[in-house]
Design a protein that fits this description.
This protein is mainly α. Helices cover about 80% and strands about 0% of the residues. Helix 2 packs antiparallel against helix 3 and helix 8 packs antiparallel against helix 20 (about 375-385).
């Protein structure tokens, strides 16, 4: 009965519009009371949920991303991407994907990606004769590269939810090839749709322009190198690398690019504080919720349920993917990472899936959910930036969904896509 109260009350609170963080806390504390457990333990679980040193990296990553958003880096990355891959049929679509791959590896945020790059590229694409739905669809779907390509604060949330045995540095490495693979699939989809619609190619600006655009973008690109490289080399902990990355991002945007005003700096600070507070409250309440899931033995029951349905690892993975895709359509990503990881990770490991590979499967699934109705935050932001009704965008976005699903299947069933780089480093 208690498990029905926990899950039912959570679903009810979400359905009536309660913020997910508070829905998790209300459901967890109600289950504590129902089972006669001291509420003090529940509050202790809430506090212990955020009493983790690695979580200190999250506000630094978020702040660095907000500085990048307001600091002129996006425009320079777009210029470099345009010079590098613009001279292809429908080249601005591929430029959009390539820019998202570069900027996502710096900001770690899909929303920041859309806001920064979309506000630059979508109007330009419209001026060049690209239809609004194409421009918005490419921007929205490629934005989730920021979730997969390191550094990503969602990877830190997953590592905390997964517990011992999951290394953040290995997660960073595990995300490189899946992120590039997904962007290549999206670039192919962008090219094929552009050819079908008859979009023309841009003129190649020349090697000199390519080199100059690369030099202009290099200081910003080095942000990701410093953050990830510092962790992998052992020079920094994850928290220290995040702090150093935030300081470096400020120096680049303020002293090198000179694109941050006092007003934009204050806006970046305020936005990062707001985002950090939301994430921390969510993680705190999810700690108590996860405790009750364990109390009710939900993870072990999930393993038994799925293995009773079938013992075929391929079918089990397909079921996990399907459930994650459906949940990703209706709930916030960070909340789902915290809820789904303790439930599905034991199922995945029981059939031989490495936790770092499962992290990539989880993030791609939930990233796709950000681009799908009815609660796709990336889709909403992209349509707002492109001034396009969501119905028109969804009507023609399916080739890009197929591209992401194809990449997801490769990530799911070919472990080497996620594990080659972590194994090379650890080996």
């Amino acid at each position: 009965m208690g498990i029905y109260l926990l899950l039912g009350l959570f679903a009810f609170c979400v359905a009536i519009g309660t913020p997910v963080a508070f829905a998790l806390g209300i459901a967890a504390l109600s289950a504590f009371a129902f089972e006669g457990l001291p509420l003090m333990i529940g509050f202790q679980r809430i506090i212990s949920g955020i009493n983790v040193n690695a979580l200190l990296a999250i506000p630094f990553f978020i702040f660095a991303g907000d500085l990048m958003f307001h600091g002129g880096i996006a425009a320079r990355l777009v210029r470099f991407a345009s010079a590098a891959v613009g001279a292809v049929r429908g080249g601005l679509g591929i430029v959009n994907v390539f820019s998202s791959m570069l900027f996502g590896g710096i900001s770690g945020s899909a929303i920041a990606d859309i806001s920064a790059l979309g506000s630059i590229l979508v109007p330009v694409m419209k001026e060049k004769g690209y239809e609004a739905d194409y421009a918005v669809n490419v921007t929205v779907t490629s934005s989730i590269a920021g979730i997969i390509i390191p550094p990503s604060h969602n990877m830190i949330i997953y590592a905390i939810a997964a517990g011992t045995g999951v290394s953040i540095s290995k997660l960073f490495l595990a995300g490189v090839l899946p992120g590039i693979l997904m962007c290549l699939c999206l670039a192919l989809a962008a090219y094929l749709v552009a050819v079908k619609r008859g979009y023309r190619a841009e003129k190649f600006p020349g090697l000199e322009a390519l080199f100059l655009s690369f030099v202009g973008a290099l200081p910003g690109l080095l942000t990701a190198v410093i953050i990830v490289g510092g962790v992998l080399s052992g020079i920094f902990t994850v928290t220290e690398s995040g702090a150093f990355g935030a300081v470096y991002a400020f120096l680049v945007t303020a002293l090198v690019y000179r694109a941050v005003s006092w007003q934009s700096f204050c806006t970046a600070v305020a936005q990062s504080v707001k985002t950090t507070a939301m994430v921390m409250i969510l993680i705190a309440c999810a700690g108590a919720f996860a405790y009750m899931l364990t109390f009710y033995r939900v993870p072990s029951k999930a393993v038994v349920l799925m293995t009773d349905i079938t013992s075929n690892p391929i079918l089990i993975l397909l079921m996990i993917n399907l459930v994650l895709l459906i949940l990703g359509m209706i709930m916030d990503m960070a909340a789902l990472i915290l809820i789904c990881t303790p439930i599905f990770l034991p199922v995945a490991t029981s059939i031989g899936i490495d936790p770092h590979q499962f992290g990539m499967i989880l993030l791609v699934n939930l990233g796709l959910g950000l681009c799908t109705p009815p609660v796709g935050s990336c889709l909403f932001v992209g349509c707002a930036v492109g001034k396009l009704p969501m119905e028109k965008a969804v009507r023609t976005i399916w080739p890009f969904y197929i591209a992401i699903l194809f990449a997801l299947m490769l990530i799911t069933f070919i472990p080497a896509v996620s594990l080659t780089l972590p194994n090379l480093i650890s080996g």
